[in-house]
Amino acid sequence: MLFLLTGFVSQAQDANELIKKVKEKLALVNDYQADGVMKTDVSFMKVPESKVTIYYKKPDKFKIKKQDGISIVPKGGMSINVNSLFAGNGQFTSVSAGKTTFQGKELSVIKLLPLDEKSDVVVSTLYVDEKSALVRKAITTTKESGTYEIEMSYGKFTSWGLPDKVVFLFNT
Questions:
Q1: d(Cα 29, Cα 59) in Å, to the nearest integer?
Q2: What's the angle, vertex CA 141, arms to CA 80 and CA 49, rounded to 5?
Q3: CATH class of domain segment(s) 2-170
Q4: Per-residue confidence of the chain (172 residues) as pLDDT tens digits?
Q5: In the chain, fewer beta carbons within 10 Å around the N or the C end?
Q6: How is the chain split into domains, by residue range?
Q7: How far apart are CA 13 and CA 127, in angstroms?
């Protein structure tokens, strides 16, 4: 029994340490503005690609501004980004959920469980590259707005923890 308890405590500490490293990397960014292209892939609609500007301001302000036409995003989806998961320090418990492979990389799987019963977030699952302290994928389940999946690819802004490409998936 003692060995099982020791292993569980060790995994919890590892998850907390990894989350701490991810938060430290993301804390380097106070605000940013990025231009991008939004592709909407909905089988029953034909929506052309459009230019967007993404804004972020610490700790949890996030906005996507589309220059023209309609924008299909889920209710409450604008505030779901990796930085917003960590807003309000210590408002969640992190639990190690093992390892997996994603995009050819071995990642640690960490579950974030909110401590506040009134939180709209039920659980967030982060897929973290331990070597670079980068979140490669995040799946967040909410009470009101369903489940969102974010996949991130990194390039020239890796040292800041900012992805070059973000794929945001949700049910329509």
A1: 9
A2: 50
A3: mainly beta
A4: 444 444 444 454 589 999 999 989 988 888 888 888 888 777 787 878 888 888 888 877 777 887 776 666 655 554 556 777 766 555 889 999 999 999 899 999 999 999 988 888 889 999 999 999 999 999 988 888 788 899 999 999 898 888 888 888 877 5
A5: N
A6: 2-170
A7: 17
